[in-house]
Write a structure and sequence with these properties.
This is Membrane protein. By secondary structure, this protein is mainly α. Helices cover 82% and strands 0% of the residues.
Length: 134
């Protein structure tokens, strides 16, 4: 199996894990608040932070490395969707690695908006990836 195929498989798999995690944390976890209450929801959120960030560090490093390799492989100055995808991807990954330094200072409502924005960026990245060679 060539390095190109390995990079594509690693990139797609790590993207699925990352998007799935953000989807779960953004759209599923908050929906349990009416059932478990605010205090329990906060404990659940705190319990999810450490393991999801630990997994995310490794997963997103794979995502960044494989994405960089694929960007180099597919590079074409006239492919604007590739550049949009790469820029948004880099911003999302950069946010993931820098978030622990400032997100906890944000009000909860704004933190939720940040997660929704990240999820929207991820959906735009998916659309770009599907349209850029069409």
């Amino acid at each position: 199996m060539s390095l190109f195929i390995v990079a594509k498989l690693a990139h797609i798999t790590s993207a699925i894990f990352f998007i799935g995690c953000v989807y779960f944390r953004t759209l599923i976890v908050p929906r349990i608040k009416p059932v478990v209450g605010e205090a329990v929801l906060q404990r659940i959120e705190m319990a999810l932070v450490k393991p999801s960030r630990a997994f995310g560090r490794v997963n997103n490093a794979i995502l960044l490395l494989s994405g960089s390799y694929l960007f180099y492989h597919y590079f074409d100055a006239s492919n604007s969707l590739l550049h949009v995808k790469a820029t948004l991807g880099f911003l999302v990954i950069a946010f993931f690695y820098t978030a622990p330094f400032f997100v906890f200072r944000l009000p909860l409502a704004l933190r939720l908006k940040v997660h929704h924005t990240l999820l929207a960026f991820m959906l735009v990245i998916i659309v770009c990836s599907q349209l850029m060679f069409y």
